Amino acid sequence: MGVGNKLKELNMTRDEIGMFATALKDDTFRGLLLDYAKEISDPDNKKKYEEEIRLLEEERGNTIDFIHPQPYKALKTSVDGKQKCFVNICTNEKVGKPEFKWGVSENGQRGQHWTLPHTLHPGRPERDPKGNNFMIYDVIFHPDTIHMASRNKGFMDMVDNTAIHGIQDGFKVRLDQNNIKVLATKYKGTPQPGVIRKPIPGYKAEDPPANPDPLAFPYPDENPSGCAASNRPTVGPKTKEDSKPRSRTTASQKPGEPTIPNYTLKYRSFIDLQDFRCSRDSAQSPRPKEIVVTIDMPLLKSAKETVLEVLGKSLLVESKKPAYRLELPLAYPVDEDKGKAKFNKQNGQLTVTLPVSPLNHVPLPR
């Protein structure tokens, strides 16, 4: 299934797939393909490539450092309440060391004010063998930061919060902080290096030519997406609330409370040709036949882990692991005995279909 999905991503025609299958039967082609795979995976060739990139950046007035992440631990959560997400906590000596200074808090208590430099790699989409999509983020600290965190749980919590809020602030996403799970593996996915680009002091760029080459390779903008660096003081997590309300999209929850999942609510009606005949009694009623609620629960493995309650004009969906809770008022009374629920494991969505009670049969509230 994974190979089939990869072929779909290539968007190849049937003739191209046939030509590729024929080429794979040729011993010469298979040998050249194997040599190419060995060449791009050779560490010496990777070092040569990085050195060439450094020389090219120096000609443009920049210094560049490649940051190779050293895995330490991996966290599992969800991003924007839609799909699974993994955060890899890594180390590299090129990242700044942790620093602290003594300070006084607002309530007059004296304590340490820590600064935890770190780099952020933009999220990269991945797909597991079953075809499920997920995102991977890398957050890299100095080895001294991780060494101190491994000896103190409070310091480790501060490192995790710094990583989570760094991703949220740097890439404008929302991670589920109430359902974070530490994985047994140290890294999710394949480690990929990032870069830190800095301008050379005193470098003066040459004036652009009057007639630039239209085939010249474009240079990246001033805010490259290869790697984001952060060197801000860290005392605790910082959040930024969106001033604009988002329809059907939940805001971040307080620590310890269940996460309110995103949902979509639709009203469904059935159309008959008799509703369009030329008669006064053929006017279609504005009252829907069904209410369909689609709930995003990307961390849920099975619908058996949820509790679903329907009472008159309210819907309650709740689970403990992961901690989700959605209490939704309904605009119409529904028949709770004829409702249906279906969980799509691949999309992580629970769809609840509730038939609306007719006007002549509205159940009394319990």
UniProtKB/TrEMBL annotation:
Entry-linked CDD domains: ACD_sHsps_p23-like (cd00298)
Domain (PIH1 N-terminal): residue spans on this chain: 40-202
GO aspect biological process, one term: epithelial cilium movement involved in extracellular fluid movement
InterPro entries xref list: PIH1/Kintoun_subfamily (IPR050734), PIH1_N (IPR012981), PIH1D1/2/3_CS-like (IPR041442)
One of the record's GO cellular component terms: cytoplasm
Domain of life: Eukaryota
A Pfam family recorded for this sequence: PIH1_CS
Coiled coil: none
Region (Disordered): 189-261
Residues covered by the PIH1D1/2/3 CS-like domain: 259-356
Protein family according to the UniProt entry: Belongs to the PIH1 family.
The protein, known as: Protein kintoun
